[in-house]
Amino acid sequence: MWRHILKRLAQAIPLIWGILTITFFISHMAPGDPMDMYLEQQRQRQVDPEIIELLRQKYGLDLPIHVQYVKWLGNVVKGDFGESFRYRRPVLDLIAERIPYTLQLTLLALLFSTSLGIIIGIVSAVKQYSALDKGVTLGSLIIYSIPGFWMALMLVLVFSVYLGWLPTSQTRSMDYEFFSWGQKIFDRLWHLILPVFVLGVGSAAHKARYVRNRLLEVMNEEYILSARARGLKEKMVIFKHALRNAMIPLVTILGLHLPALLSGSVLIESIFAWPGMGTLAVGAVGGRDYPVMMATLMISAILTIVGNLLADITYVALDPRVSYEKKKPV
Amino acid sequence: MKHKVLIGLCVGVLICLSSTCSEKNDKQSFAESKITVLSLGDERILGPVWDSPPRFLVFLPLVEYSHAEPNPALAERWEHSSDYKSWTFFLRKDVKWHDGVPTTAHDIKFSLDLMDRIAPLKQNQGIVSYEVIDDFTFSLTYEKPSMYALDYWSVYWPKHLLEDLDPEEFWKWEFWTQPVGNGPYRYVRHVPKTMIELEANQDYYRGIPKIQKVILKFGGGTPLTELLSGNVDVSQALLSDVPKLRDDPRFHVYYKRTWYVGTIFWNHRFSLFSESSIRRALTLAINRRELARLLYYPDDISLFDGISTISQYFNDDLPEPLPYDPQRAEQILEDAGWYDRDGNGVREKGQQEFRFTAIVDKSIGLDLDKAAVFVQDQLKRVGIRMEIQESQGTLNSRFRSGDYEAVFGKFQNSPIAYGGHLSILGDNSPLGYENSEMIDLLKQAKNEPDFEKRKTIFQKIMPMYTADLPMTILFPETRVLIAKKRVRGLEDYSDPTWFMEYLWIEEKE
Amino acid sequence: MKRKSRFKKLILLGAFMLPGSGHLLFKKNIKLGIHLLLGTIAIVLLVIFRWDRFINTFQSKAVDHWVAAIFIILSWLFMAFISVKHTCEFLSDKMQKPRIKTPLFLASRRFKENKLAVVSLYVICIFYLVAVLAPFLATHDPSAIDNVLETRYQSPSWEHPFGTDEFGRDLYSRALYGARISLSVGLLAVLIAILIGTLYGSVAGYFGGFIDNIMMRFVDVFIAFPTFFLLLMLVGVFEASIVAMILILGLTSWPGTARFIRGEVLSLKEKQFTEAARAIGLPHRTIILRHLIPNGISPVLVSAAMMVSTMIYSEAGLSFLGIGIRPPIPTWGNMMSSGKDALLVAWWVALFPGGILAATMLSFNLLADGLRDAFDPKVLMRRFL
Lengths: 330, 509, 385
Fold this sequence. Notes:
The structure holds 3 protein chains of 3 kinds.
Chain A: H1 2-28, H2 34-42, H3 49-58, H4 65-77, H5 91-126, H6 131-145, H7 148-162, H8 181-219, H9 222-229, H10 234-247, H11 250-271, H12 277-286, H13 290-318
Chain B: H1 2-21, E1 34-38, H2 55-58, E2 63-66, E3 69-72, E4 75-80, E5 86-91, H3 105-117, E6 127-134, E7 137-142, H4 159-162, E8 185-191, E9 195-200, E10 213-217, H5 223-228, E11 234-237, H6 242-245, E12 251-266, H7 276-284, H8 288-294, H9 310-314, H10 326-335, E13 348-349, E14 352-353, E15 355-361, H11 368-381, E16 385-391, H12 395-401, E17 406-412, H13 421-425, H14 436-446, H15 451-468, E18 471-484, E19 487-488, E20 504-505
Parallel strand pairs in B: 1-10, 15-16, 15-17
Antiparallel strand pairs in B: 2-3, 4-5, 5-7, 6-7, 8-9, 9-10, 11-18, 12-17, 12-18, 13-14, 19-20
Helix pairs in contact in B: 7-10, 14-15
Chain C: H1 2-17, H2 21-26, H3 30-49, H4 51-57, H5 63-91, H6 103-113, H7 115-132, H8 134-137, H9 148-151, H10 171-207, H11 209-224, H12 227-237, H13 242-252, H14 254-269, H15 272-279, H16 284-320, H17 332-341, H18 347-375
Helix pairs in contact in C: 1-5, 3-5, 6-18, 7-10, 7-18, 10-11, 10-13, 10-14, 10-16, 11-14, 12-13, 14-16, 15-16, 16-17, 16-18, 17-18
């Protein structure tokens, strides 16, 4: 078990190195001079060429690219992602501020989509080939196909603009700081409903299909047949035996869903003015804030790897049938 | 096992929730006259950020501008040598930092020294030297005749609080989020990304400001939602928001002209735009009144073709615009040999089609991207094809180096500051426009402190401008300020935070 | 005898003028006949109702009009050719060749049984037709601005089925023109991705060992990036034109296909026909291109259909954020983006382009589902994943 975890960790290191390298080279493929963007950001009205040269030296832009690369890599390993052109603050600070918001959105969406997916999956597996099953199958495909950002706009239109039930954007109300503790939690959840729903519902459809198919597969296995033969109630068979075995691979699916959720959160965050990594990245692209662009890309990728790693470890921990040594790398 | 995973997930979510919850929770203290202003940015807004009016709530500038004329502020009076190279400022002796220490010329020297060390703040204003003459007298010497000494953006910081701090950490100083200034309001507290609370400075040299408490509110929703929900008293809003607020009895709408002018810059080095008659035809073909309406400008906005002194500009004493006359535009184009012979909707002359690419940078603001779409259609009607290319951030250097055909941009209709007339029409003009006579006059105007004389110089410039028509002026940028009716005094001031001390609250029954 | 040949000629002329009539006349292959006839009627109606534009096309230089007009003429010629060819066969009373039950034939028969998939295939075809014919189907000039104050933000009506936007432009016409960008970006990007991914994956899988290991580690790195963040970065670094957009989307999405086809190739490699090919000394290139890829391609087609849907989504998403293809070129994404700003005043601006986008994505996903079942009926388990 521990050996397996260590092995997976060791495999993750070259992966992360690859991510850093690709990120660096993409950002240095950019046409034009990064200094131009920098000065644009400073809203400087006129700057001495001398100062530009100084700044170029400060940011190491006068060095050959491989030297820049090694230097940059060293800095990143030390946790120094540079300074944002736009906010003039260490990028790591900016990201540390934003990450909890993104995680809270994505993790809640993960929770929501998984629980919804499991419930719908069970229902349609139990009533296999019924009208309900077919309806759920088609419905989940439709929901899966609706672009999240459009769904978000339409839900805002209905629930916020016309009905006025839910807030249009933001993480909290205006008077938030004057609320009591309980009100605060409620207020935060209130603002989370729409974004979490939109972010999660697409992958819930996906998971429902997965759970349904897994469950049907498991139901045909011998131990289920024997459980039935022993005269156990159908409910018992499903919940006690079939479900447990069907659920285990779902853990890996959760890991695989993380990049999709992070991707989806970019659009959802920008619609709901959610102060997460997505809005940070979009803002950075709009303002050509290279250090922030690079950092958001790297960190989102690293989050994905960590997510997959966790899923993998959990999977191994949960499923007694999986041997630790011979598993193929995913 | 599965439960544990679930529980783990829940705990993770809760931790994330609570980590963003744990911000300061203070009881709202009651104040008699309080104003909440929606502001851009965050709690660093009072720090060393350019172009941020809220700074003037806390810090005093040397001179203050109202109606485009410099008035004494921290400097009681000032003198300059006859060649405008050396300037001497006499500071008020009764201005104190909020901690009670008097503001002196040493603070100014310290701030200039500091700005010199922090590269991005260093200004290329051609300052040769500056020195402290006595505690309340300060002098500056410029390389060339200059009016920069009267630049309005600079504020100065307290030496006694900052001199021991490490300049390497400049941007991380706590001082920028908890500033100690010398202006009409003093810092009380802030909640990160939410608000800054300021209170009236009881020792303010002009007397205690009428509004006791100012809350700068950040983030939140759009100006529209913030105003409608009653969260803020004053906010800048989008022009397109006005129709939704105009009939609301709670609010008053103020249109405020900024000194930026939305303009199409034609590159004269590009063969299509080298003739002034063609530029005239292009200008005639654009219905600028309709464009202004499209962008929700008020119907009575003044349009113009020409440049002027800043006071003329703000007092609507502006040269008449060319009319909208597409027939005449077509006539001019045909006289110049541009016909659409092959019926593809685009005029051509010889082998060349009348086609060009205009670059527009959305981040400049002024809804220039929308203006470009409109102009594209307008020119299509007279047989000219304009492609639109959007640029992000790279526009300025391309513009400066002349690497473009046409640009939707803006300039300051002012002879003084950067981005003003000289940067567009002066030496090495990015338009490739050369009129040495006009350049001389513009330079004269720039260094002419007397406003009446300046005006006469512009009267000489105007005919040259009209003859050459180097660019097409679209509209003067106008911002919308929406305030609750009880906030008074806004008629005269463009930005509430800048002139907060002159505002008052009038409660009605 | 002479009369009969004249009669024959008349029928052939009829089949040429009205493709499909021959099929109906001889009551053979009626389904095809109906399709041809409907196509003909559609073309005739289009040309009649847009006669002025059709004629003007040949005097103008507008490329998109030319493309549309030539497409109309070519498709009519194509249908006429098929119709005449079949009618000739009917007249000479040739027996139709018995169909060989190739795997492809079986797959297409299974595909036809899936009603939803067939419908979605029709929908997709119609969308692409609409995109090509947009200049003739549009009711207004998509970029014409006229009298803004009166025309902007008109709610849907007969004159403007989808309403108008902030400039008073007709949203129905803009959605048609937007389809051209969105659909072609999706298709072309997928072609690029499939091409690269298939070659890369099959080479890795075929050679195996160290090469495979290195190549697949690279793919792993690529896959670790959340797509949208990677796209954001690339679009931010390079200014996004339509071509750049296609390249960026195509070049970022091949690793999935590569990993996929590698798996297929790994299993095919062990099969006898590969060993036989190697035994007779065929070069690697031939084995990969002629034997491995054709045999492993069917799952790639399935994933291609799904990829088109994600590509269209990504393009729309980027344009929606204002960093993809920018206005004034209409795409569904940037139309929605302006609709987002106007949500409070004009719901229709965001509703219609998004609805069409959703319909397109749904059709491609249903198509993919249908293809999956058709190619490999046993692998129901892999559906949707």
